[in-house]
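Researcher: Structure for this, please.
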Amino acid sequence: MTSEEEEVKQTKTERFAQWLMDRAEKKEEKETSLEGLMKFNIFLSIGTLVAVAGATVADYLMMAYLWI
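Model: Predicted structure, token format:
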């Protein structure tokens, strides 16, 4: 093996290592994005439940008030 062939192999190894690091960074960004979407989804779900429950309670209070 000549030193040129070793440099080419090292270059390929370095490129592969860089590709792996870039892929890991993209995966972390994607996970962070998904975590944000999940938190937003939970927030909207709780908000919807509170709104529906609040409207139902208000309806029952109005029916009770009008009945009396």
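Researcher: Any notable elements?
Model: The mean pLDDT is 84. The chain is about 95% helix and 0% strand.
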